[in-house]
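#structure-requests
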Amino acid sequence: MANRLAHETSPYLLQHADNPVDWWPWSPEAFEEARRRDVPVLLSVGYSSCHWCHVMAHESFEDELTAAYMNEHFVNIKVDREERPDVDSVYMEAVQAATGQGGWPMSVFMTADGEPFYFGTYFPPEPRHGMASFTQVLEGVRAAWTGRRGEVAEVARKITRDLADRELGSGAGSGLPTAESQAGALLQLTRDYDPASGWFGGGDTKFPAGMVVEFLLRHHARTGSDGAREMAEGACEAMARCSLFDQVGGGFHRYVLRPRPGAELVPHFEKMLYDNALLCRAYAHLWRSTGSDLARRVALATADFMVRELRTDQGGFASALDADSADPVTGEHVEGAYYSWTPAQLAEVLGEEDGALAAAVFGVTEEGTFEHGASVLQFPQGGPDVDAERLTGIKERLLAARSVRPAPGRDDKIVAAWNGLAVAALAECGAYFERPDLIERATEAADLLVRVHMDGKARLARTSRDGEVGSNAGVLEDYGDVAEGFLTLAAVTGEGVWLEFAGFLVDLVLAGFTAEDGSLYDTAHDAEPLIRRPQDPTDTAAPSGWTAAAGALLSYAAHTGSEPHRTAAERALGVVHALGPRAPRFIGHGLAVAEALVDGPREVAVVGHPQDAARAALHRTALLGTAPGAVVATGLPLQADGSGGEFPLLAERTLVHDRPTAYVCRHFVCARPTTEPVELAEQLGTIRP
């Protein structure tokens, strides 16, 4: 018999709809039920592609005896962290403060007022490795609730007070980001970087560094720093050659880890839309800066992966692919079954000769680099030379063979923020690599966001599924990332309507998310109140809402000349000046936005007839310019009577000698108008102090 989650739209919640646990969705009714029964709330937070969420569900939530105990002594709430990042953020902060670590599944015990008093992540079904079993935890919490209620209440009140005291300021007192503070961030990154491996930070778990790469590329473009460029190239080389990157199908896994000293890095196999959108754009920008063939191939392979495997029937992009899939032989769901190979499997698909070559090229060994004698494909340097056409054919045959394996499950909900990131990445890849099909896919996703997630309302919805909008309001990252996607699409297509939609969103940021001191909250002023209003400028796996919104505000101000938007961006970026030199890996997106602020950003207007090849050449040159955060508008000249082009930057821009013309301005000072792509490229090149 299904529980209350059967009426939800989240694929993650629906995965638990048949559990014997009497799950509630997050709702006032659930907390009222806990108050009526005088029992604690157990909040369980996860997401559909989370491996250990599936493990705990199978071990505990599908067990009849465990479920019966949970139902008798708790009100049990299940939350999809991707639908409710605000709930996840608030309670994850408490988990990390209490335990020193976090992760999913997240388990939080709280009062009927939402005040937490005991935390954890994954709990095994039996005591293991010094961890209490889940049943022991449940029994211990119940004993404390019934026998030491006063102590529990005091702990809950103290934790809630401590969370409330963590309110952040904008950092405005530290001043705006400057060339000096940006250089300080670069110096700290240099200390964190291992040139031998290409990875940042120590430890055996390595996460993608797309946002840091963006900062490094922008810093190199502004200053000419060879060190910044070399770190960006090294990091991208490391990510692209190891098993983090799917060498056959394109796209990136969530992270890689070294299971034991001396072992090869192996991935955690889930594939997330946000990782792939960010890395697709980072590699495209690396190609734009260096002409790297590796960067071009990875950017396009990642774009094609997103379109092939994540695009939905409605034109948006699904959230994730699971880490697990059914083993083709045993049928058991295991991590990596879809992606791993043995030498025998390669030979079966490719024949003996090409199979042996593929094993040598991709590091597939008889012993295996993963589990059960299988290997995850890599593309290490120093491998055998192979003709590019032959290698492409090998990859295509392996992809075709892999496609008949049981595929990982797909979380097909559309998250606004991550689709905004995908719109920006696909639009730029389409423009850079002359792939109009990618621009079309970006436009279709943007159309979905307007039609379904905005739908004429004075807000942005967080999610949709099958074309139906979800009930959860968008958070700050949704507004910032979707606005960024619209602004990028405006630059690529020359359609001013996308600038208008971006303006609608950034105006809502000013009205609904901004504090008096200029700091930004993750939720709107009228959002559901939680025990703390979430607010965090640091990046997680995706850009923080704070710095994503700051970037959109800054770009919109450059397009329109709006002083309120520029001022709001500057006030929000004070936190980058404060945190950047101390913790650059955790505010990489903010540092990238700060590079645009320090540089201007530059405003580029390209005027001319849409069908004129000379205008197209200038427009392409403008899009390929590396000046940090430069905004680009193209179209007919905008006349004083309002006729002509669709962008404010085109106002009274005239043709020179009746030829398409480009104008580059910065800090209210404009360079000489030019009709020559070479001269325009020089105007958008490196500034040397």
